[in-house]
Design brief:
25% of the residues lie in helices and 32% in strands. The chain is an alpha+beta fold. It has four domains: 112 residues, Thrombin, subunit H (Beta Barrel), CATH 2.40.10; 99 residues, Thrombin, subunit H, CATH 2.40.10.10; 102 residues, PDZ domain (Pdz3 Domain, Roll); 95 residues, Pdz3 Domain (Roll), CATH 2.30.42. It is elongated and about 80 Å long. It is an enzyme of class 3 (hydrolase).
Length: 486
């Protein structure tokens, strides 16, 4: 028989145990975000964009390169059927495409992607709930920026329109909730939700890649639509997908887009700073050749005569370490920092030259908009260099120096062993070696002497190479060359 004092002790313990067992875990009480209010509040400012582009098309008889035979009645019926089903009126084909956009001002300014409206002859904008062709607005292009794939449109309307505001894309953290609204596959005003998967993505789309990655479903037709935070502000413009993947989409960050859109609105074009130099990353071998402790900064491979960099005293072989006290990690970062400044602004640079840091001040020019200038007059993907490292060289002749418009001579690459360090470094037949470890080389003796006395001590050879209209640096670790020779 249990005595009463023990009963008094057991009852409270039993009640506490039952309460604990019946209570759900703390995690189960955390609710997922609710998107309905957000979708209703922001959806009206998202638009569908349809374009028409007229394409010149040849007559199919010209395409197949044959003609209806004259006076041959046996083929008459064949040609009647051919022309009925296959003949296309010349110049009559129309390419149609769909995309998205969003309104940023009550008077009808609309943001979208440049690729959505590129080469379009007609641009039609449909608002939410207005899906008929008769309800669409004709849009005009205010300005485009192909380098960031942004465009600004304008429609005329008497009533004020709902708008979306830009948010702070830098403040977004990986893992935060976002929604995308757009016109995927022509399914207007589709809402998808997800999170910010990553920031600062480079996908090879252009010189200013800095994308927000999201797993909110983005499909063809979403291009130009907004990526929204939970406050209903635009933190990205949906622009790209990986066709072979799911749940991987990319958006132009709002902090980049905001200034570009304002430039397009004010000036019809984007103004960007310009140094007039070609740049490349500093790898470990280049850093070693330049006497740097770490591989960082942007290596100047050429300077255009008369451009801002030349006037400021920048030289090939300089490494830009900071701009306006902001560290420069690589060539892409310098490009973005310079482009974010306006023509005419002064920029303070810290450059590494011959083992020392040197301050330089440069007044920026305006970045050219022609495709040739943007690519550095045919600049292409670049690669590295060599000597008894798999190269056959000879000095340039006087005529070749004149033809190449060089101030002094150099060494022409006659052959490159593809299995050698030079081949692996990417040196090509026809390249012209101008410098070795920042010293001019016009003769084979000068090249051999620098290889022995300078490059051997540093353990690396850094060549300045002229390739076509561009000059590039390439580096070869000499210990690797020695191993290959053994």
């Amino acid at each position: 028989m249990i005595r009463k004092p023990y009963i008094h002790l057991l009852l409270p313990l039993t009640i506490l145990l039952l309460a604990a067992l019946s209570s759900p875990p703390a995690m189960a009480t955390t609710a997922l975000p609710e998107f309905t209010t957000l979708a209703k509040r922001t959806g009206a400012a998202v638009v569908n964009i349809s374009t028409v582009r007229r394409v010149e098309t040849p007559d199919l008889q010209d395409f197949f390169r044959f003609r209806k035979p004259e006076g041959d009645n046996r083929m008459e019926e064949f040609w009647k059927q051919f022309e009925k089903f296959f003949k296309t009126p010349e110049g009559n084909r129309k390419d149609r495409s769909l995309g998205s956009g969003f309104i940023i001002s009550p008077d009808g300014f609309i943001v979208t992607n440049n690729h959505v409206i590129k080469d379009a002859d007609q641009i039609a904008v449909n608002l939410q709930g207005k899906d008929k062709e008769s309800d669409s607005y004709n849009a005009t292009v205010v300005g485009r920026d192909p380098e960031t794939d942004l465009a600004l449109l304008k429609i005329e309307t008497t009533a004020p329109l709902p708008v979306l505001e830009f948010g702070d894309s830098d403040a977004m953290e990986v893992g935060q909730w976002v929604i995308a609204i757009g016109n995927p596959f022509g399914l207007d005003h589709t809402v998808t939700a997800g999170i910010v998967s990553a920031k600062g993505r480079t996908i090879g789309a252009g010189p200013f890649d800095d994308y927000v990655q999201t797993d909110a479903s983005i499909n063809p037709g979403n291009s130009g639509g907004p990526l929204l935070n939970m406050d209903g502000k635009v933190i990205g413009i949906n622009t790209a997908i990986i066709s072979s993947g799911q749940g991987i989409g990319f958006a132009i960050p709002s902090n980049m887009a905001r200034r570009i859109i304002q430039d397009l609105k004010d000036n019809k074009k984007v103004q960007r700073g310009w140094l007039g130099v070609t740049i490349q990353d500093v790898d470990e071998n280049s850093a070693k050749a330049l006497g740097m402790q770490q591989a960082h900064g942007a290596l100047i491979s050429s300077v255009r005569p008369g451009d801002p960099g030349d006037k400021a005293g920048i030289k090939p072989g300089d490494v830009v370490l900071t701009i306006n006290d902001r560290p420069v990690a690589d060539a892409g970062e310098l490009l973005k920092h310079v482009a974010a400044l306006l023509p005419g602004e002064k920029a303070a640079l810290q450059v590494w030259r011959e083992g020392k840091t040197l301050p330089l001040s440069v007044t920026l020019g305006e970045r050219p908009t022609s495709e040739e200038a943007l690519l550095g007059e045919g600049e292409e993907e670049q690669a590295p260099e060599a000597s008894e490292i798999g190269l056959s060289l000879r000095p340039l002749t006087k005529d070749e120096i004149k033809e190449q418009k060089l101030e002094r001579g150099g060494l022409l690459v006659l052959e490159v062993d593809p299995e050698s360090p030079a081949g692996e470094a990417g040196l090509r037949k026809g390249d012209i070696v101008l410098e070795l470890n920042l010293k001019p080389v016009e003769t084979l003796d000068a090249f051999a002497e620098l290889m022995e006395k300078d490059a051997a001590k540093k353990g690396v050879a850094m060549l300045l190479v002229k390739r076509g209209k561009q000059t590039i640096f390439r580096t070869i670790p000499l210990d690797a060359a020695a191993q290959d020779a053994e």
